[in-house]
């Protein structure tokens, strides 16, 4: 075992631009990379996390990286003192969490708690990637409950209030996914989540409007929530979204209004 922080160590994670080249390089170097991740060399940690974040965009790589124990490398990096390392690690996890099998593995290996911790970051880029990863993890039925039990709903509501549109988009997307669970649907409303979501309908961002419409559709199933949504001006907000030129926004807003018992022709 040589010194993992040696000058030449940065060049050890190289591979041919092919499936075989990447898989072999990751297999051979993974233990070395885990050692690098635990080292104090933040620049090396950044390089490794960025490499995996970029590769994890590809569906086949999402499988390979996790099968080769890449989570052992990335999850500890979320706890780095270096903000950029945190961001890149969260970005890699967000990409990996698109895969349904990975969603279960990440939850089982402590990823939910680590990502929730990152929501408290004062860096908007870290917040956005962590919320995005939790949104993906929240697609999984079991993870909806796990994220709520781990205390994820409250910080996501806080980020739904963010003036940074990208952060608000991912936070509301996560809440929309978590709301496909009866208990979570109630908790999101009781923790004050409906107000910032409804407010997002007035945003100029079509991406934010889309997540708002989806969230309100899911949150308007509960009878108690219906009353709160109406009281907070949710009907007017949804009627605004129904007029969107975007078909998906229009459809989701229409379904939310139907849940509220409001005619879309009003």
From TrEMBL:
Q: Where in the cell is it found?
A: Vacuole membrane
GO terms for molecular function, please?
Answer: protein-membrane adaptor activity
Principal localization reads: membrane
Q: Which residues form the Armadillo repeat-containing domain?
A: 73-242
Question: Which PROSITE patterns does the protein's record reference?
Answer: ARM_REPEAT
Question: SMART domains given for it?
Answer: ARM
According to its UniProt entry, the protein's GO biological process terms are: nucleus-vacuole junction assembly
| Keyword 4Fe-4S attributed | no
Q: Which UniProt keywords apply?
A: Lipoprotein, Membrane, Repeat, Vacuole
Segments annotated as ARM repeats: 69-111, 110-152, 151-193, 192-234, 233-266
Q: Which family does it belong to?
A: Belongs to the eutherian X-chromosome-specific Armcx family.
Q: What is this protein called?
A: Vacuolar protein 8
């Amino acid at each position: 075992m040589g010194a993992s922080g040696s000058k030449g160590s940065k060049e050890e994670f190289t591979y041919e631009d092919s499936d075989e080249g990447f898989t072999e390089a990751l297999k051979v170097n993974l233990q070395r990379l885990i050692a690098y991740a635990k080292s104090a060399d933040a620049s090396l940690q950044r390089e490794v996390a960025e490499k995996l974040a970029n590769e994890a965009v590809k569906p086949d790589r999402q499988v390979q990286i996790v099968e080769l124990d890449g989570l052992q490398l990335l999850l500890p990096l979320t706890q780095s003192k270096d903000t950029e390392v945190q961001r890149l690690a969260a970005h890699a996890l967000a990409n990996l969490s698109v895969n349904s099998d990975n969603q279960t593995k990440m939850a089982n290996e402590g990823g939910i708690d680590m990502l929730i911790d990152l929501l408290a970051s004062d860096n908007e880029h870290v917040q956005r990637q962590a919320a995005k990863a939790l949104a993906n993890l929240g697609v999984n039925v079991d993870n909806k409950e796990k994220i709520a039990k781990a205390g994820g709903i409250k910080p996501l509501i806080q980020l739904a209030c963010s003036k940074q549109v990208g952060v608000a988009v991912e936070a509301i997307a996560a809440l929309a996914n978590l709301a496909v669970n009866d208990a979570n649907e109630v908790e999101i409303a009781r923790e004050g989540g409906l107000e910032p979501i409804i407010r997002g309908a007035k945003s100029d961002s079509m991406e934010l409007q889309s997540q708002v419409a989806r969230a309100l559709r899911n949150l308007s199933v509960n009878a108690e929530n219906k009353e709160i949504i109406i009281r907070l001006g949710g009907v007017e907000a949804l009627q605004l979204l129904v007029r969107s030129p975007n078909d998906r926004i229009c459809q989701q807003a229409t379904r939310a209004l139907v849940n509220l018992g409001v005619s879309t022709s009003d």
